[in-house]
Each structure stands twice: as C-alpha cells, then as structure tokens.
Amino acid sequence: MSQKQYWKDLNEFQRGPEPKGEDQEFKEKPALDLDETLLGATAPRRDFLKFLGFSTVAATLAASCEMPVRRAIPYAIKPEEIVPGVPNYNASTFVDGGDYCSVVIKTRDGRPIKVEGNDLSSITQGGTSARVQASVLNLYDKTRLRHPLAGGEESSYEDIDRQIIEKLKSSKGTIYLVTGTILSPTTKAIVGQFLQAFPQARHVVYDPVSYAGMILANEASFGKRGLPSYHFDEADTIFSLGADFLGTWLSPIEFAKQYSKGRKMTAEKRVMARHNHVEPIHAITGAKADVRATH
User: What is the pTM of this model?
Assistant: First the structure.
C-alpha cells in the first residue's frame, strides 16, 4: 500500500509531528485505512473481522426491518373450554390405508400439535406408528389443495355437490360406489343412507393391499370368513414366513405392543419369546428376529 503523507496546510508541514498528549496516547486507529481502495487497505486481521462482522449484522438488520404485522386479537367472549396457552386433549381415531390406531390429540389454541396413543384402547394399548405421529403434519401442508376443483378450475363444495346430485338423479344405469375397507360406524351409516336414496347403486370395496386370500383360507379351514387375531404376548416361540407383522402386516401397532410384552422378562415371566423369521427382503420384523433367514 502507498506510504505517501498528506498535510492540510504549510503550517502543519513545517510544524512536523506533534507529541502525543494524554488525550491522544491511547487513541485507536480506524479499523480500515481506506486511503485509496478497499483491496489496498491495511488493517490488522482482528480489526478486519470486526468490520466484516459488523457489516454482516447491519445488512441482516436492514433486510429484516420490514416484518409483517401480526395482530393478537383477544377473545371478546372466551369459550369455556379454551384457556390461552393451556392445551386440551381430545380422543380420536386414526385410520389410513388399513392402519388403525386409537389416539389422543393435544390441541393448543385450536391447533393440533401432537398425536399420542390412547392407553385406554384395548387394541393398540397406547401404541403408535411413524405414520400416526406424522399425521399432524398434514394439517400444516402449504401445498395441499384449499378448494375443490371442477374441470381444473377452482370451485366450491356447494357447486360440486349440486353437480354430483344432478348426475346421480339423471343416471339410468347402475351406480357404483367404490371405497376402501370402512371401519367407522358413522361412515357405514352414511353409505347405507346413500344406497337407500339410490336403489340402483352398488357398494364395491377395494383395497390396494388385499387380504381376500387369507379370508377365503380361513373360511375353508375354520368355517369363518374373517381375519384372525393373534396374541404375540402369550407365545413362547414366534415363527413367521414373510409376515412383516411389526411393519405393515395386518395390525402392526397392536402386534408391536404385544411383541414387546412377550420379549420382556419379568419376575413372573422368566422366559423370553424366541423369534424366527423368514423373509425375501430385509424388513422391520426381520431386524428384530433372533434368527433371520432369506428365501
């Protein structure tokens, strides 16, 4: 960097350097001596980092100074069941793609924030799965549709209902109502009301993952058309052939709770259930097995 010196006038040039006084003895130099260009400036590394940190913070504050206005509107007439900041708990049921779980939803200020298993359920006994825990995130998905679409255009539920009812009333042939397996008694009652309103309608149940073969096998073997219920907590030896009962098979939440009880040794139960598993690919159940084999 250039070492040229500059004076304000001739008197300063002739006077020469002034002796330091008490007020100038500890006077700090500027962080950066910008006499020509920024790249040619000389400064200690610490001063340069101070200057860089200050400029970064200043730029951040300048960019964030325009914050959106958020207004807190108090309750004019507060509902009795809502206390701001105090959560409420509601019992509900999670059903999605064949998965069932009795849950308790933690709600704060009208917003569900956490899902846990219901300990009072005789089936799931307070257990949950990853899908159950992640279900609350669906409520805060910004990319989901906010309105129904008709022909690719935004519409309203009233218009959609009116168009569907007109099509159903004008139909002369058979109407097929296709759904998955329904567990809710309320939904079954609504389907029954629909079939009464339209006698030409038929209800068809279709599941992407079907257990129809197991139902027919039980009917042929035991005379009952249904799915069995297992008790893994009472088994001393578990042998599974490709059944991922801890992951996706039948009722994994129920089976996982029973499995953990059967694998836990207590003072009354000194024998831990032994698990042998045969599967084509590595699954959650196979990872828990004592002996695992592939086929």
Answer: 0.62
